[in-house]
Amino acid sequence: MRLFIVEDDPYWQQAIQAIVQHQPEFRIVACCGNLAQALRTVQTEAFDLMIVDLGLPDGSGIDVIRAARRHQPEADILVATVFADEGNVVAAIYAGATGYLLKESTPAQWGAAIEELRAGHSPIDPKIARHILGAVQQGRAAGPFRDRSQGPDARAGAAGPNDPKLTPREMEVLQLVAKGFTLVEVARFLNLSPNTARVHAKAIYRKLEVSSRGEAVFEASALGLI
Amino acid sequence: MEAATPLPARRLVLAAGIVLALAIIPLAISWTMPFAALLQWQLGEARLTLLAGDGKTANSGPLAGATSPEAPVSLPDAWNKTHPGFGGTGRYRFTVHVEPGAVADRALYIPRLSNDGALEINGQALTEPDDPDKAAWRWNRPFYLAVPAEMLHAGDNSLVVSVTGVANSRAGLSASYFGPRALLSRAYGLRWFLQIDLLWIANLTVVVLAIPLLFSWLRDPAGSVNYGLFGAGSMLFGLRNFHGLFGSLPMPVAWWWPLVSSSLGWSLCFIFVFLLRVCDYRWRRFEAALAAFAIAGTIALFTVPTARFMALSPWIWYIPLFLTGLFCVGAFTHRTITKPTLHRVVLLVGVLGQLGPALHDILWIQGSGSFSSVLWMALSFPMMLIMTSVLLADDMARTRAALGSMNKLLEARVAAARQDIEALYESRRAREHEAIGSEERLRLMRDMHDGVGTRLSLLLSGITRGEISAEEVEDAVRGSLEELHLLIDARGPSTATLIDALANLRYRLEPRLSAVGVETRWEIGPGADNLVLSAETTLHVLRIIQECITNAVRHGHARVVTLRIERLDAAPDAQGAAAPSSVITVMDDGIGIDNASSATKGGGRGLANIRARTDALGGTFTLRSDGTGTLARLILPFSDGASGKVGDAAAPQRDTPAEARPVPG
User: Which residues, in sequence order, are bridge partners of residue B71?
Assistant: First the structure.
């Protein structure tokens, strides 16, 4: 599997390399330390998995995610973050990320996370679920409500295009996760197989990304979300 | 007057033009009347024989006993004046000369023949061919008959008009004409139009036009009292004027004439008050006096002996009314000249237009006027009413226009007010947000200082002195990270309720616990969804719960840890306020506290910390433990699902029903 690493901190570069070295099937094809380099490289280098840090010295990793999604639509994009704060993570999801991981995780957790991601399972925690629910509900309630409270100029477009047309089942999954239930429990409540429940998260992420395509739309939604 | 008027001159000219045109109508009619041509056919002196009778039967024939000798009389002959109190039949005998060539072209035209009559030509009765004219009560109907040629012969002919009249009922014979059919027929047609058709039209117009006035008064009794007065007067006037069209007497004369007279007076009194009110003259005493006069006059009219009615009624009723009317019109005129408004000016023209007809009619009633004449006021009055209706319509149109602009103004004001409120709300929200934000930052800094800061500084001093091992360093750093995660769990942007925070905690701990083979279970009780605590309290709660879970795993060797959140609605306290509580339970299937090895117990410092925190929160912490497990329960008051606010640390913490519930073993 071809890995594309975007990480400005040399320590973390090494750490990530050390982590993936345990997995013989992993091959690092690129390791970029800043945004410009990453944007260049992403156009030429084919990869299966990108691990990206959002805080780059010359910009946001979100731009890299968006470019990567354009050039490698099938690749998985994993955001490495210290706190998995919902603002950054959801912005990354809107740009096209399919997973995220706490940097402090152990090598075993890293491996497991990557495997899960390749199996089509995206991680989703209560904060992220609530944030997505909030954005979706705001989007549905968009129009008159927002206009009245905020005036016509402010953010009117923020939520409109954000309606990712989630299915009722996907909404149920999000609501249960938001309340602290694990995907296994969610599957039990909804009479799903655990695997199906886990796949829902990734489907939701892809819908969010699709719904936010286009620069202007993205900017607006990012404003509305963060 | 017009110079003093602040109104557009064009309107005045228009109003004056309309009035002038209306005033010209009677004049034009009189011009078109073939007076001059008629005059030569007027019947000259008659010889009258009076035959007394009850007068009700039209056929008091020539055989009835004569009560007075035949005497010369000139027409018109109004009985009230010439034969007061007489009732019966009056035979007017004329001698008419007919040229030989005109025998086939002669007709009789009598403008007023009251109450009824019959004709004889050369001793032969002449009957009316048209049934409709055969009215028994025809005081206001003209009379026309074409005389058949076979009844006449060249030279002198005898013509007898028998007039039947009820005593005191304005009976009599007007000037009469005998001449060419075409000329008389035309005069008769015009007269019929004026006395019958036009009266119908005028009365109907008055009644119909008065209806909107009355309605406008009904809608707004206080504001449109003027229209109400005028509408009432007009309605009464229009209705009572139909009496001119009656073909028979509906009731005895003793009732009929007082009714006809008093109704006119009442309608005029309403209109007088209206005129004064339009001038803003609110003379209460005058109005009361007018009402008293109307009532007293009406009573007098009904009590006066019928025989004396015609003689007395002008003096007790009509003439005072007319004088009062003159006074009111004078006041109105004065006011209109001194303080003109469009309404007053237009009305004044209409009112002045009534004076002539009124004077004419009162003279007719009194007997001084010509008995032959048409009664004018019933015909001229609609003019005034039309003007008033136009004014009302104008009023309404203006009101509506004013309402429209008022609405627009109000809408604009409402919109402006809404914008203001929104701006105010926005700024207040921003301010509150800022206040909450800075408060949050302060707390965050304090938390970081107390938690992470203390740990890291201890760690730093330990490392610089070389006193701590690598494991200890790792532990300390892990602890610091844990602190930071707790902060985020407790107060992230998507974390609003207690459940949100505990869900974050659970999600974060779950992988670690399952890695060591511990299963977590998560239960949310009814009503727990909306429990909201301040961020600071939430952080304390998370620390307590994390400690409990750690204890369960580390000391109790639990395999299953259950975390449950419930809302507990306590019984209302003394003040009647039900104080709901948040109850968080950590249940495990471990070996229990007592069985925990003293090596792992750590001297109970963890528990002491929990209790200290619980006390700080004003809550209750209970612990039940036996060999099959431990149950820790944290009860917190002041949960507030309604406020929905995070960071509500400033909210006063109500006293709790402090007792902990017995914990099920």
Answer: B48
Among candidates B77, B83, B154, which has minimal Cα distance to B111? B77
* Fold exhibited by the domain B497-636: Heat Shock Protein 90 (3.30.565)
Strands B629-636 and B620-626: antiparallel
* Helical H segments across B40-112, by residue range: 79-82
Quick check: A83 and B484 CB within 8 A? yes
Angstrom distance (rounded) from CA B402 to CA B120: 69
Q: In chain A, which among 185-204 make CB contacts under 8 A with chain B? A: 185
- The answer to whether A87 contacts B511, with C-beta atoms less than 8 Å apart, is no
Interface probe with B: pick from A81, A102, A125, A127, most Cβ of B within 10 Å = A127
CB B388 within 8 A of CB B230: yes
A114 and A11 within one domain: yes
Look at residues A68, A84, A118 and tell me which one is the last residue of a structural domain: A118
Could A127 and B504 be called an inter-chain contact, meaning their C-beta atoms sit closer than 8 Å?
Answer: yes
Question: Could you read off the pLDDT of A129-151 as tens digits, one per residue?
Answer: 888 888 877 766 544 333 333 33
Please give the tally of structural domains in chain A.
2
Q: Determine the residue of chain B that is closest to A112 in CA distance.
A: B511
Terminal alpha carbon distance of chain A? 33
Cβ-proximal residues to B345 (8 Å cutoff; 6+ apart), any chain: B1, B2, B5, B7, B12, B15, B336
Q: What angle do CA A138, A142, A147 make, to 5 degrees?
A: 125
Cross-chain residue pair A127–B511, CB shorter than 8 Å: no
- Looking at the structure, tell me whether residues A142 and A99 fall in a common domain: no
| Strand, coil or helix: B245 | helix
> Where does residue B603 rank: exposed (0-12), middle (13-18), buried (19+ CB within 10 A)?
exposed
- The CATH number of the domain where A207 resides is what? 1.10.10
Q: Cα B609 to chain center, whole Å?
A: 73
CA distance B216 to B389: 11
Amino acid (1-letter code) at residue B578? A
Give the residue numbers spanning the domain of A187.
126-225
CATH topology of domain B9-32+190-390: Rhopdopsin 7-helix transmembrane proteins (1.20.1070)
The kind and range of the H/E element at B567 are strand B560-569
Which 156-185 residues of chain A touch chain B by CB within 8 A?
178-182, 185
- CATH placement of domain B41-179: 2.60.120.260
B499 closest CB neighbour out of A134, A179, A185: A179
Show me where the domains of chain B are located.
9-32+190-390, 41-179, 497-636
Residues 6+ apart with CB under 8 A from B586: B545, B548, B549, B552, B561, B562, B563, B564, B631, B632, B633
Asked if B503 and A180 come within 8 Å (Cβ–Cβ), the reply is yes
| Residue type at position A87 | G
Return the residue in B507, B512, B513, B523 with the most chain A beta carbons within 10 A, the one to mutate for interface testing: B507
The stretches of B138-224 forming alpha helices (DSSP H) are 181-192, 198-219
User: Do A162 and A203 share a structural domain?
Assistant: yes
* Residue B645: per-residue pLDDT: 37
Q: State how far the alpha carbon of B488 is from the alpha carbons of A6, A126, A156, B143, B240, in Å.
A: 25, 12, 30, 113, 94
**Same domain? A6 vs A107:** yes
Are A133 and A221 within one domain? yes
Which among A118, A148, A165 is the end of a domain? A118
Contacts of B652 (CB under 8 A, 6+ apart): none
pLDDT tens track for B603-620: 567 788 888 888 888 888
**In this predicted model, what pLDDT tens digit does every residue of B321-376 receive, in sequence order?**
888 988 988 888 888 888 878 778 888 888 887 777 888 777 777 777 677 777 77
pLDDT digits (tens, 9 = 90+) for B623-638: 888 888 889 999 887 6
Do residue B493 and residue A86 have CB atoms under 8 angstroms apart? Answer: yes
